[in-house]
Task: inverse folding
């Protein structure tokens, strides 16, 4: 790179996972000092989440095959610390042009930016079923956090429900940690996974790891049921058993915890608040911010990288983070090696092909597969049922997601639709007879995530006596 950075360039990175760390590395190399905002206590993101300092488990035990990658990424960030303004435990809860509103250890604050890299990652894609709100039911990511950051499992006997590579990775991690795995219920069929294999062979080492996890689980007698859809989590004070069905019939198993997740979905709320243009992705089953090969969004000075732009995994996120930082440098008038940017885009493209195989091997189940009763809770924040959605479609002719939100309050709760949104969209499309891309998307609203009440007077003004 060449050129001297202007003091008017104030880059901010949201997220300190693989994409955010590599973006920070590239910006520091260009002579910039970015602000890095991170909700976590320590950098690494979800996949390379670091445990508390006093935690005694080894990297190998925490990260398995990815221990070397985790160590390298953590070392990179440690070397960057003197050259960046790192703010852990900081939640971005609102965004306006040129400014982020955050909540950190010292209370609310604003963070100005001239350029913004969104490396916000992803969250679990959840589909409801009867009893999914019982104590003991966790998202797949929540189950991982308990293990990595708290050194505990979510229960003594755990059932895992959903689909996707994370289903088997978490099962492997829990079994290695000593938990009893009651069953692994994968909604994908074996024929789906065979069909996805040719594209997944583009990354043979990654495919081999996944096959190893499955073989290791089977060798220990852990039950894997394919083509399984959950019917009910049963219990009184907490989960006691799980019921499911397959084309061959119904099954049940005793358990005291369930990890649930049908793959991942991008976290895009900040891009939405900033006015970035979105488009529906049939491949990802969600609306995503439009961006070019460098990660540039439709809003000048706003870039997006990693799983927040669409799920491609940690290796692709590292390349995309670097590429977004180089796009920022290009736009700021700093010299950038064109060959390097082309190589990074090609690397992300290879992972995009692999990801197509993953989607074929682990397809998202369709809404009709769940055959949900009217009394099943869809939006747990507002306690809105599937029956309320059906009634809105039948009686009010609702066929657009924000209209559904206005009439039923689905998506108005503390999570702002982050948990119920994908299922609400799929069910609305199914019952209204429209495609998921035609029913719209829930619009982002601040605060985009739950905030503590104690500092609220500082945000909204002291109450009058």
Result:
């Amino acid at each position: 790179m060449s050129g001297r950075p202007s003091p008017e360039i104030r880059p901010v990175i949201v997220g300190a996972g693989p994409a955010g760390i590599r973006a920070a590395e590239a910006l520091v190399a260009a002579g910039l000092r970015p602000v890095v905002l991170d909700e976590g206590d320590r950098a690494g993101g979800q996949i390379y989440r670091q445990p508390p300092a006093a935690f005694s488990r080894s990297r190998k035990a925490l990260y398995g095959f990815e221990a070397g990658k985790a160590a390298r990424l953590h070392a990179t960030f440690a070397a960057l610390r003197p050259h960046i303004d790192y703010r852990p435990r900081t939640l971005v809860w609102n965004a306006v042009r040129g400014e982020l509103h955050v909540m950190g250890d010292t209370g609310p604050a604003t963070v100005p930016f001239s350029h913004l890299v969104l490396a916000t990652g992803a969250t679990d894609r959840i589909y409801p079923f009867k009893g999914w709100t019982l104590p003991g039911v966790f998202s797949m990511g929540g189950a991982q956090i308990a293990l990595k950051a708290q050194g505990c499992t979510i229960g003594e006997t755990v059932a895992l429900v959903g689909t996707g590579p994370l289903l088997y990775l978490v099962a492997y991690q829990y079994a290695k940690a000593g938990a009893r795995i009651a069953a692994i219920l994968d909604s994908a069929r074996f024929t789906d996974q065979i069909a996805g294999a040719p594209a997944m062979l583009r990354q043979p080492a990654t495919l081999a790891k996944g096959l190893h996890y499955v073989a290791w689980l089977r060798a220990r007698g852990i039950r894997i049921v394919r083509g399984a859809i959950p019917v009910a989590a049963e219990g009184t004070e907490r989960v006691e058993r799980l019921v499911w069905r397959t084309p061959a019939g119904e099954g049940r198993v005793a358990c005291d915890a369930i990890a649930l997740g049908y793959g991942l979905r991008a976290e895009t709320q900040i891009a939405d608040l900033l006015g970035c243009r979105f488009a529906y992705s049939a491949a990802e089953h969600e609306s995503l911010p439009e961006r070019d090969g460098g990660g540039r969004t439709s809003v000048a000075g706003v870039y997006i990288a990693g799983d927040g732009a669409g799920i491609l995994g940690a290796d692709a996120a590292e390349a995309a983070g670097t590429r977004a930082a180089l796009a920022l440098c290009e736009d700021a008038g700093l010299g950038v090696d064109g060959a390097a940017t082309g190589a990074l885009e090609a690397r992300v493209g290879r992972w995009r092909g692999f990801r197509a195989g993953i989607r074929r091997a682990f397809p998202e189940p369709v809404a009709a597969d769940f055959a949900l009763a009217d009394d099943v809770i869809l939006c747990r924040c507002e306690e809105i049922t599937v029956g309320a959605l059906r009634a809105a479609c039948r009686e009010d002719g609702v066929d657009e997601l924000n209209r559904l939100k206005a009439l039923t309050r689905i998506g108005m709760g503390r999570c702002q639709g982050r948990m119920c949104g994908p299922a609400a969209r799929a069910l609305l499309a199914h019952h209204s007879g429209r495609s998921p891309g035609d029913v719209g998307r829930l619009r982002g609203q601040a605060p985009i995530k739950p905030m503590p009440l104690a500092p609220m007077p500082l945000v909204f003004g002291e109450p009058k006596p």
Observations:
- The longest strand covers residues 239-246.
- The mean pLDDT is 91.
